[in-house]
Design brief:
285 residues; Leucine-rich repeat, LRR (right-handed beta-alpha superhelix); alpha/beta; receptor; 7-stranded mixed sheet; Leu-rich_rpt; glycoprotein; transmembrane helix
């Protein structure tokens, strides 16, 4: 353990010297203070980001994609796929001091990162520029916040194959006029349907299969896309439905099994150093 720690310190020191020795380049977008502060919150929530986000050029950091035309950026941690590297942490809050309307992030994806845990902060409802939210294939859990229903620019929301529970979020077309795809497939949702989804157009792609929502499909769910989604989850919830919700079903929310070993975490950190070293060298060349 001590030898590995010494090796890690040595690598970080070498990395710091390397960064100081190579010339920098200008960011391709102008990052405002609200965006910078939220990116720092990511580092606090997922500590090993500190290693791969050492580059002062935000747009050259692994997992960040910038769009100079719109002066916005995307956080795509799913694009960091180096073997042995794991992000370990939670999703960051949007602090009260951060103006969500000024945060330049248009999409967030942590797809396929099984050590991202915890819940979705309701404060993300203030990230008004979000068009894509992909939290699929993680160990995120808890209830999907109703508050996210105010994200007027959100086009795609994917929560598939994770550990979200309780019922459907109460979202509607008035608050989310841009939403075209909402994927909740294969979670632990055993709460109720939400009648508010009947306000969306029939072009909405909704997937609730692989869950066990209780009760019956709401009478207001008359459009073919909603009926098909309910049937795919449980045909008994549609035709001649007599199902009722029990307290056990409404309160069902098991936590995912998360027990990363110290050795695994250390290995991930050491791997991150090498990933960051390679990525930074490439970005400065």
């Amino acid at each position: 353990m001590a030898r590995s720690a010494v090796a890690l310190v040595g690598l970080v020191a070498f990395f710091a010297l390397l960064l100081a020795a190579v010339p920098g380049r200008a960011d391709s977008i102008m990052v405002n203070v609200h965006t910078a502060n939220w990116l720092n919150a990511w580092i606090a929530a997922i500590p090993n980001l500190k290693i791969i986000w050492l580059n002062p050029n935000i747009c050259a950091r692994s997992g960040i994609e910038c769009n100079a035309e719109t002066n916005t950026l995307s956080i795509h941690l799913d694009s960091v796929t180096s073997a042995g590297f794991n992000f370990i942490g939670t999703l960051p809050e949007v602090a009260d001091a951060i103006n969500g309307n000024l945060v330049q992030v248009t999409s967030v994806s942590v797809k396929g990162k099984p050590r991202i845990t915890g819940t979705i902060p309701a404060s993300w409802s203030r990230l008004s520029k979000l068009t894509l939210l992909d939290l699929s294939q993680t160990k995120l859990s808890g209830q999907i916040p109703d508050a996210l229903g105010s994200l007027a620019n959100l086009v795609t929301a994917d929560f598939s194959n994770s550990y979200f529970c309780y019922g459907m979020p109460n979202w509607n077309a008035t608050g989310m006029p841009s939403l075209t795809s909402a994927l909740f497939k294969n979670n632990n949702m055993r709460g109720t349907f939400a009648s508010s989804w009947s306000t969306f157009s029939s072009s909405l792609s909704l997937d609730i299969s692989g869950n066990k929502l209780c009760g019956c499909m709401p009478p207001s769910w008359t459009s073919s896309n909603l009926v098909s989604a309910a049937k795919a989850m449980n045909p008994a919830s549609v035709s001649g439905c007599t199902q009722v919700c029990t307290a056990d079903s409404l309160n069902y929310c098991p936590l995912p099994n998360i027990k990363p070993s110290a050795a695994a975490a250390q290995a991930a950190t050491l791997s991150a150093v090498f990933v960051a070293l390679a990525a930074t060298i490439v970005s400065f060349v």
